[in-house]
Design goal:
Helix content is 33%, strand content 11%. It is an alpha/beta fold. The longest helix has 15 residues. It is globular. The structure holds NADP nicotinamide-adenine-dinucleotide phosphate.
Length: 335
Amino acid sequence: MAPVSITLNNNNKVPNVGLGIWKLDPASNTDTIYNAIKAGYRVIDGAVDYDNTKECGEAVNKAISDGIVTRDEIFVVSKLWNNYHAPKNVKPAVEKILADLQLDYIDLLYIHFPLPFSYVPVESEHYPPGFFTPNQKEKENKNIIELENVPLHKTWEAMEELYDPKKGIIRNLGLSNCQGVLIQDLLFGCKIKPQMLQIEIHPYLPQWRLVEWCHKHDIQVTAYSSFGSQSFIELGSDKAKKVTSLLDHEIIKKVASNYLDATSSDVLLQWAIQRKLLVIPKTNSLKRLPANLNFSNKFPQGLSVEDMDTIKGLENGIRFNDPWEWNNMKFPTFI
Ligand SMILES: NC(=O)c1ccc[n+]([C@@H]2O[C@H](COP(=O)([O-])OP(=O)(O)OC[C@H]3O[C@@H](n4cnc5c(N)ncnc54)[C@H](OP(=O)(O)O)[C@@H]3O)[C@@H](O)[C@H]2O)c1
């Protein structure tokens, strides 16, 4: 079964399965993205912070010039990084993404985190800045990130200026890593409501309320880190290593055994799309690329109500991507 097309609140459409490109192997990331498009992926979930925007653009442009897709058949996603929240910095930051991608527009631009770090020029040797802020050298080892005084709605207004669903340099707008009250606050004043929210979601952290609230407000939700701790083990996270991997969890394996040839990864992705979420699994593996795209073939009738209920029992609130824990920064993003 091919990915299903989801209609956004501005009538644009996006397939419900894509490729996440955070932590793709830099030695092969252009090839991986190109091979993903060849395998049928039509959404590429990138971000400035992943430091592979140029490679993403190379892969997409090669797929277009090789006749695999046309520009309007591929949905290229990026995320405004934290150092570019000040309204005057938004357009230059978007232009830099477009120059790196060698494309004329971005299909969906998220605000990556509701955390405005102080500005680092796009021409800086520190670009993409990650956790670098200008006076950090003097503050080394103190884990201090300097914030800029920019309310989220000001960043949003600057993004709205660049938005048009058919002709803009940004075709769809999104928020990532935001909680309900913050989004509600933005809705009170915005001209364009977000088309998408991207948040961490897996059976340990199902985010039932936030998803229900977004769907009620016609905001689609993309789940990231669908395989839970797996992605954070790559980063060497002690927290992730201590938790039973969802991919190895007896309950997920038991559910998988109820469907012909299904694996734990298939179950985790199917669980998400059955909740009307979009998914963007990341893989470096050529073998897993088609598996992570075509998983729903294993579930012609979907996961049963009983199996969905069984998976519900795994909720424990564990969150793997939390600014509170990054370098001991203690930003209460989700508290
Ligand atoms: N907005 C945000 O703040 C945010 C945060 C995190 C992620 N994201 C986005 O979401 C995407 C996906 O999340 P993620 O990268 O954190 O994690 P993920 O897709 O849940 O998991 C990736 C990990 O699972 C492994 N894997 C992939 N497919 C597998 C399969 N079929 N069987 C077994 N293992 C498999 C990968 O290893 P191999 O590569 O070896 O296959 C990798 O270690 C990211 O790439 C990024 O685009 C966004």
